[in-house]
Structure formats: structure tokens, C-alpha cells
Amino acid sequence: MSAQRQSRVTDPRSFGRVAVLMGGTSSEREVSLDSGRNCLEALQRRGVDAQAVDGIPALVQALVAKRFDRVFNILHGHHGGGEDGILQGLLDALQVPYTGSDVLGSALSMDKIRTKQVWLSLGMPTPRYVSLAKKSSDVEAAARSLGLPVIVKPACEGSSVGVSRVFSEADLPSAVALAERYEGDLLMEQMIVGEEYTVGILGAEALPTIRIVPAGEYYDYHAKYVAEDTQYICPGLSGAAENEMRALALKAFQAAGCGGWGRVDVMRDRGGANFLLEVNTAPGMTSHSLVPKAARAVGIEFDDLVWRVLETSLDRGGGA
């Protein structure tokens, strides 16, 4: 696979001084801190002049003081996370190169509803859904129109934050109350019964699929970041089915205006049909995270993966 290509640069000095941006103030702060520490250590092991920066205000101060030449963004989420386009717009204005997607890709993919609208406009498969404003009186009607079971979640959160699975109308009020703790509209989505997959994207290529098999019934926050018994099968498929899902994920990633690196989550129903769920433009890089697992399957170890992610910042000028 061509993802095994040689790195574009070999001299760590080519990157200059790198801010590894982590933490922040979103609901995914703790995951981001874990990801950030891992990425920082990987870059330092490779000789990169990298330092940790916690949150956007601290980064602004450091950039004004000319302390850094580029940013490795490993913030997760929005509202102080770095995945909603605000950070990207700031760095574009300051002409500071950064990793990952630009303003458009970051802002669009953070909003699950509008991402689905783009995919549907292009004839790409995604579960049927209803967008609900907070305090909506149409919750029961929306559930009936989709048909139970459904998923209820905030439209602009990640890491399974605020997500509920609803099997009866009696469970709707508690699911809605949980999702309404977070800002923005709610997304009610048809529940696809089948297997859960994720596809990492590195540059213009899709990495091998990963089939996620949680020990419990669902792949929730605990299964993602705490449990040690979740199984990750990579590649998750074979032959034509594997190639089809990888091609779909890459197409979905690019359709959402994303670039650099990321991850696309997909459900595959019992009939073998694929359904796009969402895009992550700054995926986790923890010990439980999935992009490193997929990269390792094609011979890219963690330190090399982090280096290649940093190389995506070269596409925005600066450096080698």
C-alpha cells in the first residue's frame, strides 16, 4: 500500500518550533490531553523542537510572541476544542501552518447534521435522521417517522458524548434531556443494526478498516477510552467489501472538505450495506485510539504516524 511511502522530510529542523496544541475547554479535554502527551513525546523522540500548549488562548499568546512556527493540533471537539474551524481561521489569519483540515472541513464535519446534508446531496449513504431544536415538541413524532430504535445525540459533540439509544418512546425524555446538556441542535437518527467500523485517513489514502467489537452492547465512551476488553479487528473486512468501505470513507472525507488526516465512522448493516456516521478531523491518539491501530497494520508505527501527520502542515506553507 502506498501509505508506506517514505516520509517527505527527514530533518526534524525542517518543522521549526512546533506547538502541540492539546487540552482546551471542550467536553473532550481529558482525551485531548492524553492524545497530546503521546504526540508530543513521539515528536520529541524524533528530534522535533516541540512543546505542549494547553488551549487556544495560551497558543495565541505564544504565537504573538513568535515562539512557534507551526501547530500540531490535537484538540478535540468545539467550544475551546480545535475541530470546529475557529482555530483554523485564526491560524490562517496569522499565516501559521497547522495539521489537519482547514476551516471548511473542520466546521462542516463538526456539525453532524450539515455533514449528512452534504453526503445526501451527493447520493452517499447515511442513516435517515431528523434535526430537532432544543425543547422541541416534535420528539415523539420524529421517532415515529424514523421508526424505533433511534439514536439521540447532540449534533456537535464527539467521543460518544451525550449519545443515547432509544428502543421505546418511554425512553425518549431521558435521552433528549441528556443531549440537551450540550449546545446546539439535537440529532435523532435511524439506528443501523449491524457492525461498527472506522476508517483512518492519512493524506489522500484510506487506511485498512477496523471492525469494533465492544464487550458490552455498545461502543460508548467507556468502551472507547477506559475498557481493556474492546476488540479491534484490522482489517475488519476483506476483498471487495474492504475496498468498497475504504473508497466510500475517503470519498466522504473529501466531500466534507476535509484534508490532511482524520477518521470516518461507518455502520454496516446485516445485509452488507454501508452507512456513513461522521468524520473526525483530529482523531484520538491515545492507547485505545484507532488511527494508530490502522496505521500499524500497514507498517506505520506510532512515532512515524505522528511525524506524517505533522508533515500535513507543510501543505500550508512553511518548512521544507
UniProtKB/TrEMBL annotation:
SUPFAM superfamilies (UniProt xref): Glutathione synthetase ATP-binding domain-like, PreATP-grasp domain
Name this polypeptide is given: D-alanine--D-alanine ligase
Chief subcellular location: cytoplasm
Gene Ontology terms: cellular component: cytosol
Record's keyword terms, sorted: ATP-binding, Cell shape, Cell wall biogenesis/degradation, Cytoplasm, Ligase, Magnesium, Manganese, Metal-binding, Nucleotide-binding, Peptidoglycan synthesis
GO molecular function, a single term: metal ion binding
Class of this enzyme: ligase
Keyword hit for Ion transport: no
Gene transcribed to yield this protein: ddl
This protein's pathway: Cell wall biogenesis; peptidoglycan biosynthesis
Domain ATP-grasp as annotated: residue spans: 116-311
